[in-house]
């Protein structure tokens, strides 16, 4: 059977990449396919939101470069919360440069992403050298990479043959590329009849998820967990503003309520899919 109808536990048991296996195991253990995207700009708000949503998530997604008062101790606190609540960390860096440059951006600078982020992502636009550049840093550490095969935004150029080439690139580097940021399952996409793709198991992490809104004023488009997980076969829902809100100031009780609501919706959609 394809990964579409297998349980997360069945997939975890045979996944060769340590970060993909850990994510699948965490999803099963916590009965959560929810990743919360914590796109806030103050370190204390960042930690407060993560502490509250932590029990309901398999994964926390960060954009560390938007935090105004970033310091190394923030990463230590993030790691302590990861241990306390049992979730993995995904820095949404969207690398997009030549191999040598992305290897430096991944390992070095202020943020040293590879030292703490289990999973990161990259645009396939430079070609396979972006994967080998990042793998030179991340593979020895047991990290995993997601390629952006599609985007959630209106007018995205990541469609058609671009998406197919992204999947082929992943297939050629499946020791480090664990899946895609995409809007649907990629089983067999871009495969020639001669290629055997039956054993591949790419994880599909999907942003652009909302229960109360269909988009924002800057091109974002939202679909429901049912559309994303049951109908399109995706594995993890990524939710930001649907959970932590849009206004100024964070209502921590509301954040907890929304995290529980999205966890339940994402899990129900998965149970519907596997039947
Ligand atoms: O739920 P939102 O709209 O508040 O946040 C969605 C999050 C943001 C985006 O940077 C990210 O998901 N994202 C991505 C990722 C994860 O790579 C790709 C994409 O196509 N759309 C998208 O929104 O942090």
Summarize the SSE layout with pairings:
Blueprint: H1 8-14, H2 18-30, E1 34-37, H3 43-53, E2 59-62, H4 72-85, E3 88-95, H5 99-107, E4 119-122, H6 129-138, E5 144-148, H7 160-172, E6 177-181, E7 203-206, H8 225-231, E8 236-239, H9 241-244, H10 252-274
Parallel strand pairs: 1-2, 1-8, 2-3, 3-4, 4-5, 5-6, 6-7, 7-8
Helix pairs in contact: 1-2, 3-4, 3-10, 5-6, 8-10
6-acetyluridine 5'-phosphate binds at residues 37, 39, 63, 92, 94, 121, 148, 151-153, 181, 207-208, 220, 238-242.
Walkthrough of the structure:
This protein has about 280 residues and is an alpha/beta fold. About 40% of the residues lie in helices and about 15% in strands. It is built from 10 helices and 8 strands. An 8-stranded parallel β-barrel has the order 1-2-3-4-5-6-7-8, surrounded by 6 helices. Helix 3 (about 45-55) crosses helix 10, helix 5 (about 100-105) packs parallel to helix 6 and helix 8 (about 225-230) runs parallel beside helix 10 (about 250-275). The longest helix is centred in the last third of the chain and has 23 residues, at about 250-275. It binds 6-acetyluridine 5'-phosphate. 6-acetyluridine 5'-phosphate (6AU) binds near residues 39, 63, 148 and 208. The site of 6-acetyluridine 5'-phosphate (6AU) has 19 residues, from strand 3, strand 8 and helix 9.
């Amino acid at each position: 059977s394809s990964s579409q109808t297998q349980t997360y536990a069945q997939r975890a048991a045979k996944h060769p990449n340590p970060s993909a296996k850990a994510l699948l195991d965490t999803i099963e253990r916590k009965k959560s396919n929810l990743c919360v995207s914590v796109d806030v700009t103050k370190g204390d708000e960042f930690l407060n939101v993560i502490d509250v949503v932590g029990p309901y998530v398999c994964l926390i997604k960060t954009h560390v470069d938007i935090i105004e008062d970033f310091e190394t101790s923030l990463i230590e606190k993030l790691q302590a919360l990861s241990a306390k609540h049992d979730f993995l960390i995904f820095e949404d860096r969207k690398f997009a440069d030549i191999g040598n440059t992305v290897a430096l951006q991944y390992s070095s600078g202020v943020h040293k992403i590879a030292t703490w982020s289990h999973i990161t992502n990259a645009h396939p636009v430079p070609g396979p050298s972006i994967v080998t550049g990042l793998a030179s840093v991340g593979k020895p550490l047991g990290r995993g990479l997601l390629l952006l095969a599609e985007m959630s935004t209106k007018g995205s150029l990541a469609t058609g043959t671009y998406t197919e080439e992204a999947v082929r690139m992943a297939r050629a580097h499946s020791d480090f590329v664990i899946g895609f940021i995409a809007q649907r399952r990629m089983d067999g996409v871009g495969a020639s009849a001669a290629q055997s793709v039956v054993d591949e198991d790419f994880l599909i992490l999907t942003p652009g998820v909302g229960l109360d809104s269909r988009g924002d004023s800057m091109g974002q488009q939202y679909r429901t967990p049912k559309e994303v997980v049951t109908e399109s076969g995706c594995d993890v829902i990524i939710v930001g503003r649907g959970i932590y809100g849009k206004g100024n100031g964070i209502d921590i009780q509301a954040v907890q309520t929304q995290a529980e609501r999205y966890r339940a919706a994402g899990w129900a959609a998965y149970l519907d899919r596997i039947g």
